[in-house]
Amino acid sequence: MKKDVGMIPVSLVKSGNWSATIFHSNRDMRDVDFVDGVNLCYVPNYIFISGFLKIFIKLKGFTHVMIYHGALKTLLWLFLIKTFRPSLFTYVKLDIGEIDVLERAMSIRNEGLIKRRLRRYLESKVDIFTVESYKVKNMIDEFQLINNSVYVIPNGYDGRVDNAGPFKKKEVVLISGRIGVPQKNNYLILEGMRKALAETEVGFIFMGAMSESFEKELFKLASEYEGRIKLMGYVENIDTINNIYKESKYICFSSIYEGFSLAFVEAVSFGCIPISTDLAAMDQIFKERASNYLVNVNDDLYKELTEKGVVSIVNYVNENYDLLIKSPWFFKASERFSNLMLSILNEYKEVDISTDISMLVEEHYTWDEISKELNSIILRG
Known about the structure:
Blueprint: H1 4-14, E1 21-24, E2 34-35, E3 38-42, H2 49-58, E4 64-68, H3 72-84, E5 89-93, H4 98-109, H5 113-124, E6 128-131, H6 134-143, E7 150-152, E8 170-176, H7 190-199, E9 203-207, H8 212-224, E10 229-233, H9 238-247, E11 248-253, H10 262-269, E12 273-277, H11 280-286, E13 294-295, H12 298-307, H13 313-324, H14 328-347, H15 354-362, H16 367-380
Helix pairs in contact: 1-16, 4-6, 7-14
């Protein structure tokens, strides 16, 4: 509920102009009546007839419906709803990144004429689509992937969290999320870690569930540099998470592909200096300053795999990651990333820009501000 699925309706309801119900198939939430004034309604298998009928009956009195992702069956479901309720405003939120756009562009080439025309027709019947970054929107427009208007509604952070500065930062690099999975490409940071541990006094905190293989790599390093690598595991307590953000001077992201990362926005709201691959959130939030904190190594990989005829880069990365981290691309990328890490750690060793960093998201990237923009788009639509 603290991600976009929950926070968009919660923020719209908080504005005082909306009521909202979330239809979901999460059994763990089925007995919850509401969260922050948003009603929850458990519907197993919504895409089938029983779920469709239940939602259709429940929608009586509703004026707008928002659904996530733009699969063909989802668009068809939405079309059927609107056929029986023509006045219903329909909104599709696309939770996609650059790699998803590339894969969609490649898959369309192999799509049959009837299926392609059906998709284009169904897309034209939706009132609005949104994506999370201008980078993705520009790619969609370039490839002409969606037969409709596409707006940008980014992810945000909960403006109610205790992230008021000034922050008491320590020389610590934070790595958070699902650590060790192929998508996050955490092996990319190991060379930089080795150099940083040897040449600086910085420490590293890993917060999140971790793969066994990556944990073994960290144990090797931790045995050489006692007390400078801390493994937190999965942390559920929000106060503990916020305190880690407050103390960490740097946040490290090494993903091969990523949407508009919520963790990134949260970390920046706490004034963490990014050390990152080329994320859409980085470009959008930091604008012309983005190049100071990122290294673009992923485009080279995308190009290489596309030229090889790989249709699903995501599947390829997940299925061949052990080979990928032994490839020439990886060794070159690792060197470039480690150089970026050392450069940033040395440049900001005795410099505190945390308040300046946090201001980049404070004005435009709280869920309250994002819901205002969405409300404006819906009214115009």
